[in-house]
Design brief:
The mean pLDDT is about 90. This protein has about 375 residues and is mainly alpha-helical. It has 18 helices and 2 strands. Among the domains are: about 60 residues, 434 Repressor (Amino-terminal Domain) (Orthogonal Bundle), CATH 1.10.260; about 160 residues, no CATH class. It is elongated.
Length: about 375
C-alpha cells in the first residue's frame, strides 16, 4: 500500500497545485511538503482535515484506506458460512481481507469462526488457524462499539474457549453475551454437581417465566387457554404431582379458570376443575403448615427438578393462620355460596360435596 506522501503528491498534481501553493494553504513550509511526499516525514494529524479540503478528497482516500465493497464482503462471508471450512479457502479470504478490508469486523468474525472449525488434517496448521481465530476474537471484543456485535463475537469466542477446555476464561467472556444464549453458554462452562444445580435452576426460572407470560394474558385478557397452558406446563415438569412452591400458583389459576367456566355455562368442566382446586389447596395448606421453621427445606421430587427445592424462608412472611384459607371447611363454605348455585342439582357436584363432608376425607 503506498505511503501517504505519495498520495499527497498524486492528489496535489491532480489539483494542479505546486508544493509552495499547498504549503501556503496549510500554513507550513514547502520543505515540509517535500519531506511528506518523499516519505521522510508525515503530516501531523491536525493537518489531515485541511489537507482533505485543499486536495478535494476523503480521509480514507488520503490515508489509503480502500472503500469497502459491501457486495464483495458479503460474498466472502457467505463463502465462509456456506461451504466446508477448508483451510485453503480460509487462507485465501483472510489474505484478501487483510489487504483490502483490515478493519471490517463482520468479515473478521466470519474468518475467526471458520478458523475455529477449519477442516484440516495438519495439526500444526489447525493450531495456527485456531491461534489466529483467538487473536481475531480478542481484537474484535477490545475494539467493537456495537453491543449486539460484541455479544455475537463473545458467544463464538466463549465456545472456542470451551472447546479448548478453558472453561473459567469462557465463563468470563460469556458475561459479555446478551440474550438467552448467555445462560446456555455459561451452562457449558460447568460440569458435575455445579452443572446440575445450574441446569435445574434454569429449568425452574424458565418455567416461572413461561407461566408468568401465560398467566398475564389469562388474567388480564380473561383468556382461558392461556391459564390452561400455564397449568399444563407446571404439571408436565412436576409430573409426580409434588408441586411444592407451585401449589398456590396452581390454586389461584384454578380459581380463575372456574370463574370462566361458570360464566360460560360449562358446568361439567367447572366441577372437574374444582377437584383440581381441592388438590392444590390441600397441598398448599400442608406446605404452609410444614414451612414454619426457618431452616425447613422442601425438595421437589420430579425428575426435571429432583435436585432442586424451596427454602421455607420464602414463606416466612406468611401468617400461619393463612393456612385456614386452604382448609376443607373453608372450601365447603365457598362451594355453598350463591356463585355455585347452578351446580347444586348436578350429581357430580353433590358427590364432590359429599367427599368434602365425609370425616377423614381431604384432611
Amino acid at each position: 500500500m503506498e505511503h501517504i506522501g505519495q498520495k499527497i503528491k498524486d492528489l496535489r498534481k491532480k489539483a494542479d497545485l505546486t508544493q509552495d501553493r499547498l504549503a501556503d494553504y496549510l500554513g507550513v513550509t514547502a520543505q515540509a511538503v517535500s519531506k511528506w511526499e518523499v516519505g521522510q516525514t508525515a503530516p501531523d494529524l491536525s493537518l489531515i482535515a485541511p489537507l482533505c479540503r485543499v486536495l478535494g478528497c476523503s480521509a480514507d482516500e488520503l490515508l489509503g484506506i480502500a472503500e469497502e465493497n459491501g457486495e464483495e464482503i458479503q460474498a466472502m462471508i457467505d463463502e465462509l458460512q456456506l461451504t466446508p471450512h477448508r483451510s485453503e479457502t480460509i487462507r485465501r479470504i483472510a489474505k484478501t481481507a487483510a489487504e483490502k478490508y483490515p478493519r471490517n469486523e463482520r468479515l473478521s468474525l466470519a474468518i475467526a469462526i471458520a478458523e475455529r472449525s477449519a477442516d484440516t488434517n495438519d495439526r500444526n496448521e489447525g493450531r495456527a488457524l485456531r491461534a489466529d481465530a483467538e487473536k481475531r476474537f480478542v481484537t474484535i471484543l477490545s475494539e467493537t462499539a456495537d453491543p449486539e456485535f460484541r455479544s455475537s463475537a463473545a458467544t463464538s469466542y466463549a465456545l472456542f474457549l470451551i472447546e479448548e477446555e478453558r472453561r473459567d476464561e469462557a465463563a468470563k467472556i460469556a458475561e459479555q453475551i446478551t440474550g438467552g444464549l448467555k445462560d446456555e453458554i455459561l451452562l457449558k462452562c460447568l460440569d458435575g454437581d455445579e452443572w446440575l444445580d445450574r441446569q435445574q435452576f434454569l429449568v425452574y426460572r424458565s418455567l416461572n417465566k413461561l407461566c408468568g407470560f401465560l398467566e398475564h394474558r389469562g388474567f388480564e385478557r380473561k383468556h382461558l387457554p392461556s391459564l390452561e397452558a400455564a397449568e399444563a406446563a407446571i404439571r408436565a415438569v412436576l409430573c409426580d404431582g409434588n408441586y411444592i412452591g407451585y401449589s398456590n400458583r396452581l390454586y389461584v389459576n384454578a380459581c380463575e379458570q372456574i370463574k370462566h367456566l361458570m360464566e360460560a355455562g360449562e358446568y361439567a368442566r367447572a366441577v372437574e376443575k374444582l377437584r383440581d382446586r381441592m388438590e392444590y389447596a390441600a397441598q398448599y395448606g400442608k406446605l404452609l403448615a410444614e414451612a414454619k421453621g426457618p431452616d425447613t427445606y422442601l425438595p421437589y421430587t420430579a425428575p426435571a427438578l429432583d435436585g432442586f427445592g424451596e427454602d421455607s424462608a420464602v414463606w416466612g412472611h406468611i401468617d400461619p393462620r393463612s393456612a385456614d384459607e386452604f382448609s376443607t371447611l373453608n372450601l365447603l363454605n365457598v362451594l355453598k355460596s350463591d356463585f355455585y348455585a347452578p351446580l347444586r342439582s348436578r350429581d357430580d357436584f353433590k358427590a364432590l360435596l359429599a367427599e368434602l363432608e365425609s370425616p377423614g376425607e381431604n384432611a
